[in-house]
Amino acid sequence: MSNEQPYISVIVPVYNVEKYVEQCLHSLLQQTLNNVELIVVIDGSTDNSEAIVRKLAGEPAIGNAFSDNELETSPCKKTAPLREKFANMTVIKTENHGLAAARNEGIRHASGEYVAFIDSDDWVETDMFEDMYGLAKTYDADIVACNFLFDCEDGPHDVQPGMQSKFITDMDDAIHDILLSRNMNNCAWNKLFRRSLFDNTAIRFTEGRYFEDLFPMLQWVSHSSRIYLTNKPYYHYRRIRNNSITGRFSRKHIGDYVYLVNVVHNWLISNDLLDKFRIEFSTCAFRIYNQLMFNVFFMNIKKRYPYYYHLTTALPVNRFFTRNTVLNTESNKFILISLLGQMNKCRAGRWISFCIMSFVCAILKKLRH
User: Fold this and answer.
1) To 5 degrees, how large is the angle CA 16–CA 303–CA 285?
2) Which sequence spans correspond to the domains of the chain?
3) pTM
4) What is the pLDDT of residues 18-39, one digit of tens each?
5) Residues 189, 142 contacting (CB under 8 angstroms)
6) Which residues fall within 8 angstroms of residue 64, CB to CB, at 6 or more apart?
7) Cβ–Cβ under 8 Å, residues 228 and 142
8) Domain 8-239: which CATH class?
9) How far is residue 308 CA from its own chain's centroid?
10) What does the alpha-carbon distance between residue 200 and residue 219 come to, in Å, rounded to a whole number?
């Protein structure tokens, strides 16, 4: 391993992604930029993901490994030589504590000038880090973000619309973009971060909760002075795995989303930013509410009313947004804010609104099919 500081530390949390992890790591091991440090965190994975990772790393598998016959036919066997030209690869094994904890563990081991986070069921273009690191050095940027593609298993790629290449020196613009998920979206996986953002602050991903990107992104941006966005789509975001978070829904998802809205709201207040970003925050909170309501009525849930009750009591309409503070372009604005805001003030009204929503969504489901 070279004593020279790596240009980039790439952190890849791995949990039960044996179908996808080989493609992810293959795309990272073939990066055209030299001197990249790859940190793979095995987050208590119980399938063959660890065996695939360790095979690529040139290490013996531990725990749930391939048999000799399986290794002969494994897709990682043919890519094992890639490890020979990629000396800076570290495999860390931890108990299963979730994506945020795995990322934070990777940060503790990162030594690169910049840090990147790649999800192990996604993959990237081989020139991603060479081009983005070049932009980081050219603009002396604290954060560089790229566009991305949706990789659908049953359809074509779809470029994420609306992102524009631009150099940001006013962090209000970046906060605006993150809250509205425009240009600079609120995800960590399509970005490079200057490592000093981690070294000089205690800001980390919130462990034990879903939707761990938005709040730390706002904080890291507030500690930045220069950000560059490129509309070139280097990142391939895979959607949708059956066992991914987008394929499941529970009351914890509701609780974690409500937690997220509250901590962002409190952070804006504590930094005297709420008045400046009231429209953006209200629209962000409404989009979360809208998405949760969609999940309640369109995902495969046997008893919907307890979910509906939990959502409408934990995140009632008008607590964080009203019709006047949410952008007019938001779909379902009138129905959700006007109807539910008036009817959900008592138990009887909440039950009636639930029945109305159930009826409307049942019709929409039939129309979709």
Assistant:
1) 70
2) 8-239, 249-368
3) 0.89
4) 999 999 999 999 999 999 999 9
5) no
6) 45, 46, 47, 48, 50, 51
7) no
8) alpha beta
9) 25
10) 12
